[in-house]
Amino acid sequence: MTNRFIILIVLFSFGCNKKKLFTQLEESQTNILFNNLITESDSMNILDYEYLYNGGGVAISDFNGDGLEDIFFTGNMVSNKLYLNKGEWSFDDVSEVSGIEANNKWSSGVNVVDINLDGRLDIYISTSTFEPDSLRSNVLFINRGNNAKGIPLFVDKAHDYGLADMSHNINSSFFDYDNDGDLDVYLLINKMDKYKQPNQYRKKLIDGTSSKNDKLLRNDYDDNLGHPYFTDVTREAGILIEGYGLGISVSDINKDGWKDVFVSNDYLTNDLLWINNKDGTFTDRASEYFKHTSYSSMGNNIVDFNNDGNNEIIELDMMPDDNYRRKTMLTENNYNTYINNERYNYDFQYVRNTLQLNQGFMDGNPIYSEISMFSGVSGTDWSWAPIVGDYNNDGLSDLIITNGFPKDITDRDFIDYQTEMTRFAKKKTLLASIPEVKLKNYAFKNISSLNGVILFDDVTNEWGIEEPSFSNGAAHGDLDNDGDLDYVVNNINGSAHVYMNQTSSLLNNNWVNIKLIGYKNNPDAIGSTLTVYLSNNSIQTYEYNPFRGYLSNMQNTAHFGLNSLSVDSLSIVWPDNTISLIRNVPINKMVIYDYNNLSRVVKGKEKKKSTLFSKIDLGINYKHEEFDFIDYNIQPLLFHKLSQFGPGISVGDFNGDDLDDFYIGGSRSYSGTFYQQKNDGTFSKENLFDDNSGDNIEEELGSLLFDADNDGDDDLYIVSGGNEYDKSHNSYADRFFINSNGKYIKSNDVLPKFLSSGSCVRASDYDNDGDLDLFICGRVIPHEYPFPATSYLLENKLEDGILKFEIVNDILSPEFNNLGLVSDALWTDVDNDNLVDLIIVGEFMPITIFKNHKTFFKRLRGTGLDNYRGFWNSISGSDIDFDGDIDYVVGNLGNNTLLNIDEGKEIFIVAGDFDNNGSTDFFPSAYFKDSNGDLSLYPFFTRHDFQKEVIAVRANYKLHSEFGNTTFDELINEIISSDSIYKSSVNFLETSYLENYGDGTFNLRALPKEAQLSKVHGIYLDDFNADNYFDILIIGNDFGGEIGMGRYDASNGTVLLGDQKGGYTSQNIEESGVYVPGDAKSLVRIVVDNKPILLAGQNNDKIVSIYNKNSSIKSIKILPNDRYAKIYLNDSIYYKREFYYGNAYLSQSNRDLFVNNNIKKVDIYGSGDSFRSIIY
């Protein structure tokens, strides 16, 4: 029976069911019998050598030049194998004849390259593990051509070429680092030190002396030898930092025409991003480019996932996808990790896959946001190779991930058993007790929108990637020349997997494969960049480099899936930085382009794009400082810190000179700071407090500059917050300062006596008596999270020049008592009845509106918002849709989190004193996959973490596996006997736009995906591009997130441009010019030289100042008692703006009105019957 007939039978039976994209072919069909068999022994086993199961690689290339791609496997304890493609999915094992077996070598990574420039593909193999040194010298198989039977013959010439390195090589990558036209090589070196703990903090070795230091070898062509010889230039190139290297990718990261190197390092050692200095040296800039990376970093890949012309970076780790594996593998949270990171200068790393979204360039550098949780690819268990290609030819690059491990030495129950039994149990017994991790590869279909945030859909079963295995290296290539990418996997202790891609027969999508022929010293054109311009004006970009994923070599062609489109043109940037532009590119076939047969021009510099915003230097030399209080020592199961919420910024006029000044809040041990504007538009730091301002024990949150006593100057209110002390500590008393000739004197008699850990303070004359009243947001009850805190309504009782505020909760709205964990509030007239209402947002709360009934406030029901319980942080208002009422933008947690919630689901929390020890215990939950792959509600943290909160957890669940099978409800029923517990939930995480219908009801719509990448704090609404539509600028992050999930840090500031249909389009950083990368909190507008400037306050970081380049504006001075304005574009179309004393998280902006030059009229309404009109 022929192979063709066998395959037809398989396809026929397959077609009876739902058709799947890939079909796994049997050994009997392909004749591929490779099995990377690892045989453990007493001297070679996982307990003594943790890299025993790191596996081998795959190379797909045409070794004999017959037009069919062949397959090469590296073996560890077994010989390498070469299978020649005979067509019709039949392969011949020619390993012994070809001479590539490399017996007695532990072969790992494989590169295929024409190293001696003779037109034939050679094979370079990285070797490791074995002793003595001679058994791990790298192998270079020079292709001597085919024998009479068409079999390529190889001979090892590594020593002759200077490539027989013996430094425990794991992989390598060939590239032209010095732009001299030939290919140099980077060696990825990973030596496991037998008696050292690889995760133990110690001083980094950054002087090149480590046995785990990678190497760079320069290609020096030797005329006498007639071939290249490689010279070690590691030290002179500056490659001096150690690492347990597992993954390597080469790319022009910063688009300067010189190749850079990204290395993913295992264990504690940080990843390395070697940026090419263009002078033969490199500088590691990983800590500058990435806010965090994976921890146990494995394979990586660099590719443009969203077709915007900028490459993303994906690297893999070990975060499991299901609850049971999470609970039996993950370690307990330990804040000492952060302390030691700082002490030993390690970067932030987390146990999960990371996907670095390229958000565009600023000052010549790419700006990244890590979005793996948002994109749905953060957890794929013990993962090795990220293989990226357009597998369904729909025009977007998809992702397949190999994974699995024969001996799970990270299993917490095994670790406990090993710790207890090491001295007593035989090694054989210990080895037999280690569980295995046999898993399916993961397949993810790219479902991103063009130029947008990247999203994937798990299509593992749908695409037919279904057989569990211990998979390591993998490669793709078009093995049957039908226009789609087939997939080959190197498995440990199992047969290699060969998957036939059936896209060409199942889908009617166009495609093109492009093969390049380069110049003499780089005949394969490695390092070229191809960009196809498509018929719908979109683009696709690919860097021509086959060394990708993990230990493997892809087919060296550029594959572009086109969906239903055609190619308008093709741009090729060759390795020498010349460009060829080609039109009339045929599709649905392989196309070959030769460097020597195409016209070329020298690549010029790209024009710098114009941005909406630009940085501005105001002479503000300020850096916020925050004492690192460890909230988790008090309540171990918090989602985030409660002591790291500042700083707030308030804008006012300290000295009555009509220039904007600002106050930025301090923190525990650090006082707040006054910045006063000078006549030249710069700011000077001033000490305007009297000697009785405080003891620097307060954690300052919100502040407000306002004329409390109607004497014509701005007084100052400062909210005390945080979580550093017990709730009865006097540091939680708010403070009020009277402005006395530009100095601020603390008044002890103005405020009522109350202690509260608050957030914001907001002012408005809610009772229309001519003075400003206050609302103080109660953020948390210290050490008793998440019990609801009381917020305070303070009525201004100014009489005969005597200022006094009184708490009027019980009189006007008892619901303010124990209201919730309030983050922000806004005084606003929701229903245009000329009475100012109050909108309140917070954690575990719906967006809550209290309507002003003149003599009392009552919560408004039936708003359409009651069912949206979120981690709401911030709110800002404006008439976004031009219908005469105020709409709102509300900041939330976002979706780049492990707490993702599907529609109709909610995560629950419970709290109480579960162990009767007088302290508050907090139990959170989250949705994870159960054994069937369905999402179920489980405890969020591990058994070790929960037992820190309630020791009974340890007694009730003696094994981690028992806890791993326990749902959240089962945990609650088992541990909590009392009915007097506090319960709450969250069911919505998106930052959103609230459309006000004007009748007390709202339509809530999530903002675009770009707004959901991190927690949102600062919000600013205005028309940034002078098109008369409201745009949105948001900033955020939260660097106090719990240790396992880590810092919320993906936001760099986001600009959303509004349109006439109520939609929003995100601007990348190159378009917006906004870059606020830190733990951003407050965002205020301040006026300098009659121009609106934005100041962003960042926790433990500097203030960022930017200005909008829209010059088509004019300003209108707003008086203290002005409440709102109607701005007319013509006689019938107008929008409304309110003038706030505090607007968005911990922020108080200048109240002046800025309008576009095409405005016809502005009507301004003040308190009482006050009104004025300005006509243009």
DSSP strand count: 80
Radius of gyration of CA atoms, rounded to a whole number: 32 Å
CATH architecture label name of one domain: 7 Propeller
Q: How far apart are the termini? A: 89 Å
Read across the widest sheet, the strand sequence of neighbours is 33-32-37-38-40
CATH topology of one domain: Methylamine Dehydrogenase, Chain H
Oligomer: single chain
Model regions low in confidence, pLDDT < 50 over at least 5 residues: 1-16
Averaged pLDDT: 95
Count of runs of 4 or more consecutive helical residues: 18
Major beta-sheet overview: 5 strands, antiparallel
Percent of residues in helices comes to: under 10%
Strand content: 35-45%
Q: What is the CATH superfamily label of one domain?
A: YVTN repeat-like/Quinoprotein amine dehydrogenase
Specify the overall morphology: globular
The SS-based structural class is mainly beta
Query: What's the CATH C level of one domain?
Result: Mainly Beta
Write the topology of this structure:
Layout: H1 3-16, E1 22-25, H2 27-30, E2 58-61, E3 70-73, E4 81-85, E5 91-93, H3 95-98, E6 107-113, E7 122-127, E8 139-146, E9 152-156, H4 158-161, E10 169-175, E11 184-189, E12 215-222, E13 227-232, H5 234-237, E14 244-251, E15 260-266, E16 272-276, E17 282-284, H6 286-289, E18 293-294, E19 300-303, E20 312-315, H7 323-329, H8 336-344, E21 349-350, E22 354-362, E23 365-370, H9 372-375, E24 383-389, E25 398-403, H10 412-421, H11 427-432, E26 442-446, E27 456-458, E28 471-477, E29 486-491, E30 497-501, H12 503-506, E31 510-517, E32 529-534, E33 539-543, E34 547-548, E35 552-553, E36 558-563, E37 567-573, E38 578-583, E39 590-594, E40 601-602, E41 613-615, E42 649-652, E43 661-664, E44 673-677, E45 683-686, E46 699-706, E47 715-721, E48 735-740, E49 743-747, E50 757-764, E51 773-780, E52 792-796, E53 805-807, H13 809-812, E54 821-828, E55 837-846, E56 848-852, E57 857-859, E58 869-871, E59 874-878, E60 887-891, E61 907-912, E62 921-929, E63 935-939, H14 943-949, H15 952-956, H16 960-964, H17 968-975, ...
Parallel strand pairs: 18-21, 31-39, 42-77
Antiparallel strand pairs: 1-30, 2-3, 3-4, 4-5, 6-7, 7-8, 8-9, 10-11, 11-12, 12-13, 14-15, 15-16, 16-17, 19-20, 20-22, 22-23, 24-25, 25-26, 26-27, 28-29, 29-30, 31-36, 32-33, 32-37, 34-35, 37-38, 38-40, 41-73, 42-43, 43-44, 44-45, 46-47, 47-48, 48-49, 50-51, 51-52, 52-53, 54-55, 55-56, 55-58, ...
